Structure formats: C-alpha cells, structure tokens
Amino acid sequence: MDKESATPSGAASNAIKATAHLNEVNREPRDGLEKHKRDITEKKTPDVIEMLKGLVDRLEKMEEKVDHRLQKIEEKVDCRLREIEEKVDMLISSLLLRLSGGGGRRDLVLLLSFND
Questions:
Q1: DSSP of 18-32, one letter per residue?
Q2: Is 8 helix (H, G, I), strand (E, B) or coil?
Q3: Are the C-beta atoms of 7 and 16 separated by less than 8 Å?
Q4: Cβ(29)–Cβ(35) below 8 Å
Q5: How many CB atoms within 10 Å of residue 112?
Q6: Where does this protein have compositionally biased stretches of type Polar residues (predicted)?
C-alpha cells in the first residue's frame, strides 16, 4: 500500500496546486446557521453606531463642563490678581506718604528701585 503524492517530495509549498476550486468570498449561506450569523452581524452594526453616538454626546457634555470650569477658574484668578494689585498699590501709596512726610531722598530712591 504505497501512497504516492501528486507532487514531488522536494516541491516548494507554493508549487502545490489546489485540487478543488476555492469557494467564492460572497457565496450564499449553505444553511440557516450561517444566515443567522450574518443577520446578527448586520443587527450589531446599528447598535454600535448608536453606542458611538451616545459616546460622542457624553464627550461633548464633558467638554462643555470642562470649558465652564476653566472659565470659572480664569475668573477667580483674574479677581485674585486685581485684589493683589490693589493691595500693592495701597502699599506703595502708604510708603510714598511716609517718605514724603519726613523720610528723605534716600528712601525715595530705594522705593523707586523696588518698583523696577
């Protein structure tokens, strides 16, 4: 019972030819199970699209919240900066009043160099 191969034993794998035709890619389903699988896949596509739309909506809402919070933070920082500027102006004014009251020229020079 010697079985011989149709191709020589030393043949490369690309030299071996198919003995039967390969099935077409877009063939009709052979049984109900394949049709059922295709139907399920087609039904999943709209579900995935709806899920992605939901995610996009949630991301847009999150972006709006982040933008709103950033705006609030910027407003608080601006307000705090104005408060600090006002305090610095008051401090400079009080120093100038003290210097003009009896300090002297040397104190004024020190104050002006401090502002630079």
A1: PSSPPPPTTPPPSSH
A2: coil
A3: yes
A4: yes
A5: 11
A6: 1-12
pLDDT tens figures, 39-56 = 666 777 788 888 999 999
- d(CA 103, CA 95) in angstroms, rounded, equals 10
- CA-wise closest residue to 92 among 111, 73, 76: 111
pTM above 0.90, yes or no: no
Tokens of 94: 């009080």
Residue with tokens 């003290």: 98
Domain residue spans of the chain: 30-115
Length of the chain: 116
- Tokens encoding 59: 């991301």
Q: Which amino acid is at 8?
A: P
